[in-house]
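Help: read this over?
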Amino acid sequence: MNRTDLSWMIGGVQGSGVDTSANIFAKAAAQGGLWVYGKREYYSNIKGEHSYFQVRLSKQPVHSHVDTVDMLATFDDETIARHAWEVRKDGAIVYDPNLGGNSIDNIPTLEKNVRKYLEAELSKNGLGKTINDVLEVARRKGVHVYAIPYMDILKKVGEKFGDPSLSSLTRMLNVMAVAASFALLDYSQEKVNEALKNQFKAKPKVVEINIAAVSAAYDYVREKYNGGFGIKLQPVPTNEKRMFLRGSNTVGIAKILSGCRLQTYYPITPASDESEYLEAHESLDLDGVIDGEMKTMQEMQKGSVVVLQSEDEIAAITMAVGGGLAGVRSATSTSGPGFCLMAEGLGWAGINEVPVVVTLYQRGGPSTGLPTRHEQGDLQFALHIGHGESPRFVLASGDLEETFYDVTKAFNYAERYQTAVVHLIDKALANSDQTYLMFDPNKAKIERGLLYKGEMPNADGGDYERFKFTESGISPRPALGTKGGIHWTTGDEHDEHGHITEDPKNRIMMMEKRMNKLELADREIPLEEKVHFFGPTDADITVVSWGSTKGAILDAMEWLKQDGIKINFLQVRLMNPFPTQYVKQVLSRAKKIVDIEMNYSGQLGGLIREKTCVPIEQYVVKYNGRPMSCEEVYNAVKSIKQGKAPKRVVLSNGA
């Protein structure tokens, strides 16, 4: 693989500022014109266990993480013990020499199997069980090891500010690891300072002392290591307007722009991050745009998003459905266990043709499973949740840009076809950070469907049929309380007014009215909203996949192309209604089909066979709770092309 990027990793005890330090590193790189992709990993407990964050940098856009680490920044012993083995030859490890004598036996959070592996590797190399022994293995492999005495340097900084206390200084260990990394890379100290100002903008005193710590780290590295080691990292001049985004925040921003004005949720990882972002931005400026028309400055208004934390997920979905009945763009966000509890509420929305959006953040299951880890195991669940049959749209995003625009599509589908929409994303997208060119909000056009504005046509009296049989199957709807719009809603089958009835002829007509919306949507929704196709049509291998594996596949395609292996990639986005004809057309001309998914059974492959009768003979799957890397995809597809792979390749990388 001809890599032209840099992979940097930092780790530490959960709650010790690993996330903050990685954000500073990533923002400093992004402000220097570099493209950034960040991957965040953490345990499901709040504090104490090990967490780590990998940041990948390049002069060209990058869409995924890699398994190989070029530079490992550490300020605790467990990060060295766990991740020193991932650092490549000629890479670097930054560490605190005061940790060198610590034994791996004294790291309480190392799992038994990890400890057993470490002991075996160290024994094989004729070494003991200390951190210095782990670092010696790295040295023998050709890794550069740089000792940075953080506390000695920080004490001088503390004395300068009149605060030599250890408790306050230790809070800056993570920033020191970042600063030492950048100093070894000979990267602009000014960009690091800018990132610090951005990270702690509400705390000027914190900014001041951290900038002093950064300067001290740079001075130490320049004096001790003569400017660093072989890899140099320099800012890249650019005039492009870019953003640095986190996945869950991207969804929140898009919901605000899409006109979502009610968000309900019950706390659950990783979905809660999105609702917490919305809670922090509930009050918003409408920028002079009201009902699609530009208003004068005097007419500008404030808007708001009501965010409700409910007592459970049953309440969350029914509150959101209530908002839909009231004419408000409503959504709820959850993960697998919470989605289980929403089945009845979604069924009620289905029979009453209520628009509602559910943002489903997939994670490892079943049951509580892996609460903070990655998986794409809920596709079939989203398609079939609930008893009986009702129309439901399922839309899957593959990256943050798609996620941004798909949020608006989800609301538009919900209101245009008066049905529930499940927007599938996953932990890999929710907790990734990435740079993008500025998105265009004008592409996110709001379509509210057949929603009455103002009074009903029969406001002075007369009959109103909320569920009127129409040629399209979609009946005009009023918001609750609209004059002349009195109707009934119930969980039972009903007639056009909403009155309960078990008449068999009415049942047939109502079922067909609701279910035919899927056929209507299949005809109306443009193909580019259903699928994406990448690569040449005459490829050796056709990859099919969905969701967050997109980035790893696209990056791997570039490496495979350099090896003379031509592949194309069919990304399915709209799972229901499924783009049957197009998928069948593409796969029928494929020489070899490879399904790549982050689940055990290859759920998209099963759906493709169900809808098209095209069998998938080759699978690449991953279900160890870690996201797919582009290196894994590259190696798997290459081995398949060479005829060296089994019919079912199981990927297992990730610490």
Remarks:
- The radius of gyration is 27 Å.
- Confidence is low (pLDDT under 50) at residues 294-299.
- The longest strand covers residues 50-58.
